[in-house]
C-alpha cells in the first residue's frame, strides 16, 4: 500500500528534516508540502493525501485550528500526525482524533512506532468506506434508509423486495453479496445454510424456513427438508428403483428428493 503523505510546517528546515526521515520508508509517497495552514488547505483539497504530518504553532492559523475548521465543515479528514515542540496541545489533538502526537526533535524509535500504526489504520478506513458504499447502493436500490439496510442485514433479512434479488452474507466484518440468480442449490447444516453459487459455497446463518421465505417459489423448489434447488439448474428428475427420486443438476451434482416432497416436485417438474 502506497501512503500519500503531506508535510505541513512553517519552518523549511523542519520540513526538509522530516522529508529525509520519511524517505527511508518506501511505503510513504511524499505528494507535497506546505508552509502555512492556508497552503495546507489548498494542498489537501488538490492532492487528497492519506496522511498529513502537521505542525501546530504556525502564523495565521495553528494546526489545531486547521483541523477544527475541517471538522466543523464535516469534511473527510486524512490521518493526522501532529509534530510540534510543545506538549500543551496533546489532549486537544487526540480529541480531534489525531493518529499520533510527536514531539520535536522526533525520536527515531517513536517515529517508527507511529508509522507501524498507519497501515492498519488506513486498511480499517478503506474497509469502512467500502461498507458505506455498499450500504448506500443497497439503500438506493431498496428505497430505504441506510440505517434500515443495516438493521435488515443484522437480522439476515432480504434487503430489497418481497423476494430477495441477492443475499447479504456476513463473514466477520465483511459482507458479500450473492445474486439469487447465481444460486444452484442450498443445503442445511444445522442453523447454517450452505449457499452453492458458481462453484463457490457461502455459509449463511439462517434456518431453512427463513431462507425459503426469502426465495421466489417460481424459481426455487424445496426438494428435501434440508435442500432447496434453483429450478433452472435442474437437468433431470430420476426415478429410482426404490420409488425415490433423485434430482440431477446440470452441473452433475445429485440431490435426493425427500419422500414428503415427491408429489410437489413431480407436479412442478414433470
Automatic annotation (TrEMBL):
CDD domains: REC_LytTR_AlgR-like. InterPro entries: CheY-like_superfamily, LytR-like, LytTR_DNA-bd_dom, Sig_transdc_resp-reg_receiver. Keywords: Phosphoprotein, Two-component regulatory system. It comes from the Bacteria. Signal peptide: none annotated. The modification 4-aspartylphosphate is found at residue 55. This is Response regulator. It comes from Gallaecimonas xiamenensis 3-C-1. Coiled coil: none annotated. PROSITE patterns: HTH_LYTTR (PS50930), RESPONSE_REGULATORY (PS50110). Residues 167-270 form the HTH LytTR-type domain. GO terms for molecular function: DNA binding; phosphorelay response regulator activity. PANTHER family: STAGE 0 SPORULATION PROTEIN A HOMOLOG (PTHR37299:SF1), TRANSCRIPTIONAL REGULATOR-RELATED (PTHR37299). Pfam families: LytTR (PF04397), Response_reg (PF00072). Residues 4-119 form the Response regulatory domain.
